[in-house]
Amino acid sequence: MTDVSANLANVQEKIKKRALKWGQDPDKVKLIAVSKQQPLERVEAALQAGHRVFGENRVQEAQSKWPDFRSQYPDIELHLIGPLQSNKSAQAVALFDVIQTVDRPKIAKTLAEEMRKADRQIPVYIQVNIGGEPQKAGVAIEDADAFIEQCRKEYGLQVEGLMCIPPLEEQPAPFFALLSKIAKRNGLEKLSMGMSGDYEYAVQFGATSVRVGSAIFGERG
Ligand SMILES: *Cc1c(COP(=O)(O)O)cnc(C)c1O
Description:
alpha/beta; 17% strand; binds pyridoxal-5'-phosphate
């Protein structure tokens, strides 16, 4: 049996300890509980334990569960952490509170248009392909500064921070440090980095949100 409530407390405690050890403010680290592909009763358990910040990686899947949860728990904060296609942009703008995966002009432009249409300006993060991996989403490191500028100036997006997923088989620390450096030189304060396997390192390197799934909800079905 997965004890979601105990897992949440455990992860929160580890975040706090690591933050304090490295001179980071633990209150500035948001725990995003990644609920993709999890049974609804586990998500419900997190809600009952008082947790309100969640992440989903697919618009369709999120649409199938969150409107119902929202009607029960109006203060839910939902982050899109997976790749977005432009034909899902309107739905994403209506459903999510933060979109963390803006990584190319086409999607930036479409999102800006949909936000205008819906009269709903939501913050976005730019996803950076921090390991330069061909199969991964994210803007290339060398294009990041220009793309951030373009999102702000040309599209008028409210760019709040950067998001990354470091290469699986490598030490994550240098990638977290690099993301932090790119954020700083662009005047961005938010850093979404760290998953179940490496969130403590991410906190050490200044993450303001960590995206933790299996360490809270157990293995995905
Ligand atoms: C699934 C997912 C996570 C959570 O992964 P876990 O290893 O289960 O913590 C975090 N970030 C993104 C982008 C994901 O797709």
